[in-house]
Amino acid sequence: MAPSIYPDYPPDLSEEQRQFLVTSVNDWSIAHGLAVRPAPSFLNQNLGISGHDVTENASQVLAIAAPLTIFPSLFPRACFEEALAIQKAYNELYAAIAQDEEWLEGIVEELIGIDDFVGKLWETHLAVKKEGYVQEHSLGLFRSDYMVHVDPQESGAKPEIKQVEFNTIASSFGGLSSQVSSLHSYLASVDAYPSAAASLQPESNKDGIVTQSPLPASKSVPSLSSGLAAAHQAYGPSKSLRPTCILFVVQDPERNVFDQRHLEYSLIQKTGIRSFRLPFQRILTDTKLDSDRNLLYHPPHSPSKSYEVSAIYFRAGYSPDDYPRAEDWQARLHLERSRAIKCPSILTHLAGCKKVQQILATPHSPHLSRFLPDEAMAARVLKTFAPIYPLDQSDAGQEARKLATDPSTAARYVLKPQREGGGNNVYRKAIPDFLKKLPESHWPAHILMEMIEPPAQRNIILRNGEIQSGGVICELGVYGTCLWKNGGVAGKGEILHNEEAGYLLRTKGDQSEEGGVAAGFGAVDSCCLVDV
Amino acid sequence: MAPSIYPDYPPDLSEEQRQFLVTSVNDWSIAHGLAVRPAPSFLNQNLGISGHDVTENASQVLAIAAPLTIFPSLFPRACFEEALAIQKAYNELYAAIAQDEEWLEGIVEELIGIDDFVGKLWETHLAVKKEGYVQEHSLGLFRSDYMVHVDPQESGAKPEIKQVEFNTIASSFGGLSSQVSSLHSYLASVDAYPSAAASLQPESNKDGIVTQSPLPASKSVPSLSSGLAAAHQAYGPSKSLRPTCILFVVQDPERNVFDQRHLEYSLIQKTGIRSFRLPFQRILTDTKLDSDRNLLYHPPHSPSKSYEVSAIYFRAGYSPDDYPRAEDWQARLHLERSRAIKCPSILTHLAGCKKVQQILATPHSPHLSRFLPDEAMAARVLKTFAPIYPLDQSDAGQEARKLATDPSTAARYVLKPQREGGGNNVYRKAIPDFLKKLPESHWPAHILMEMIEPPAQRNIILRNGEIQSGGVICELGVYGTCLWKNGGVAGKGEILHNEEAGYLLRTKGDQSEEGGVAAGFGAVDSCCLVDV
């Protein structure tokens, strides 16, 4: 954590101001679907409907405002604009990586035997490859996550963005982030914020015309649904003479269901494209492949009808927890074999391994320029990398092992597992002890990353109807949509659609060192841009 | 209840179809704010947040889909169109009544001493009259409620609409009715309804072009907020050099808060007009009159700021329950004295007495043509009246007393109290016993109305996450917005704005003889129009 670079913010609240803001936020959020299903722990087992014991039903019908910040957090304008400006280059980079099977194979080989999940994904890919892929298009709905970093060793250092991770599967909160930026703008427009919050005021020229708003809207809902629509259109007409649809492959139950539903509603409203939610466990029950490997969806609620699936949007399947049974891997194989466009394909999923990020961000790595030939753009992307080291037997790995096992140097680092999903990071001084207990053969399943030092700031988080004030850490996620036709090696494919697709700010208390709103540790937020 | 005149509807549902529809409805409703705060009885006292006993908080932060029907109910197209077509005439009628103080005085005199509430309202009006009104504009956001009636004694009788009541204060559900018609259209557009539901299919011409949709959208949200905006504009610039705002005077707590919030959000979004929610009990604390009787609002959350109130929208104050203390009547007087435009003024509030409806609907009454000079329109309005009798000493009253005390004739009638708010009607054979126990001096506080016999139909109601199927009764409410400049006697005023403002369908199980979704007995619904 670096010292603050921001103006004094947010203003103090009287009890009446606090009450007014909380009520305004609670009501606006439900009125606009900025909501989640409540946690079962919130609804204890004594909650009954008409005298029955129906907690499960209650947690599926009740809703509550998503965990969110009362104020939009401060964010340096230049950093925000840079993050959005380079998203198309990031899309291009990861589309190229996902097409370079040989290069990915080298990475996977290092992880196989350590990370079962990566091994299983690779096996699944190989099985389809052997038979031959029948779909040459791939869709990515990506999210590149950053924190603002201020070098604590350089006085007067300018803030810059440093990448935390790049998500190639199930990038979440795009459905809610449009709503939270609207919420904060609404609160500003009705003077719900104390007038002391000067940072929230738009800049005007001498004629009183607003020239610059500090509150950028997030276009993530329409942009992400446009990405799905692009894949649907690229798929072309049904070959089986059925109506076509998109499948959202989801977890069940899903507390964050409205985040996903907003994309579904935007899709049907703007493009007329049908989509269905398919729980991961029901893939094999509800879908079939015909002899041309068209994926046919048979909705349980409408047995006489069937649909040909144009695109599969994975909001599940990103974590080993989604594959408890052998059938679950059969299900993933089944989808990968199909002619539907995958969002993402298995190679695209694997491109999101932290190992890939680590290889790109290892100092003096030759890989970035290989995948991103535009030198100026590659330089801007490179600037967003925080140094990342492998924990393997390479020279960089040996260096990293020294840094990680020495408590005095470990204090500037975080140790992260290669596989997806938060909750398992090890921070700073805890790293040496953690490694001591871990067999050395398992060390390469982790990477060592220099801690990003975000400037101190404060905010108020509303969660489960209760507020907490204090220091916070913000993570900016920039969405990108990219549709490409696979080439055999990097650069040979053709990009058909490439867009920056809005942003998300996620904010957590600075006492916690874990991220992830879904895991209950963070809140959705939007940016209040400041020139610093 | 008349026999059904409708096609077979809705189609039977398999367990999978039912499940799919319920999930779709629960998710769409929360994503679009078609919601209420859950009833405290739903959240029992054992519900805790972080171990605290916070049921009150929980019931203010949790939400649940509003009670609603899974299918749009069938409604005769001709009846629907007629109800909308005559709304502007109804607006004109009630604007004229509200301006005829002398005529209203005659009615009030009959009720005073029987109905304390009417007496108190009248006293309040007289007090302001003595001092002199300083605002000549009045706004009505009205709702005229109808049921379809099929004469059970005439075979092959055409369905017609009969008025149940006319609401001049706090007409509710306009904020949700736009949403419920959107919900049903969404479900039809994604084939969530079984294909057997032929009534839901749009009609097409021979070229396949849709010529007529069976699912009319309700424009109530934008229309009602436009009505409020018209009053705001008519008020003109602030005289006290403050920013202006509209006040929503509300009950607190309010489970139906989203219904009201949707109007507030539409108002700020479309017109930029600020509005605030003011609990009825806080009127005297948070507002002041200056020497010109400008109404000044001092928001508790922003003590340094104050606003001049252009219009007061009452969503509270319609029932004696809102006036437990003497200060509550002082508060109503305080608002009535102010220069703000009232929605409604006390005279407009009184124009909504059931006694007024009864006098207009007493067979051969001369009053309708007096207030509504357009003969053709008056004839169409007259056709919507079900015969209504006073229970007083007049000739019609004597006749009514005979009908009401004889169990064989009472079976075709309903007895209603003159004052507002559901829950106290006495039906059919229960009427003679009820009157036997009531002192005869109190009889004139009620009116006797011929029962409307709606055609039988079925639907599925979702409430608190549980569904109930069965016979239902539907009530169509048509909203109207009307702004006028008061004249001294009927017809002399000037109407500045007069619009039909969308519709609401409210549906209840036919086992219950009580109405009112707020009271927990009904559900919001929309129309599936049929030609019968």
UniProtKB/TrEMBL annotation, chains A, B:
UniProt cofactor(s): Mg(2+)
Signal peptide: none
Keywords: ATP-binding, Glutathione biosynthesis, Ligase, Magnesium, Metal-binding, Nucleotide-binding
UniProt-listed Gene3D superfamilies: 3.30.1490.50, 3.30.1490.80, ATP-grasp fold, B domain, Glutathione synthase, substrate-binding domain superfamily, eukaryotic, Glutathione Synthetase, Chain A, domain 3
A family per Pfam: GSH_synth_ATP
GO molecular function, one term: glutathione synthase activity
Keyword Protein biosynthesis among record annotations: no
EC number: 6.3.2.3
Positions contributing to substrate binding: 143, 169-172, 254-256, 260, 315-318, 506, 517-518
Record's protein name: Glutathione synthetase
Species: Coniosporium apollinis (strain CBS 100218) (Rock-inhabiting black yeast)
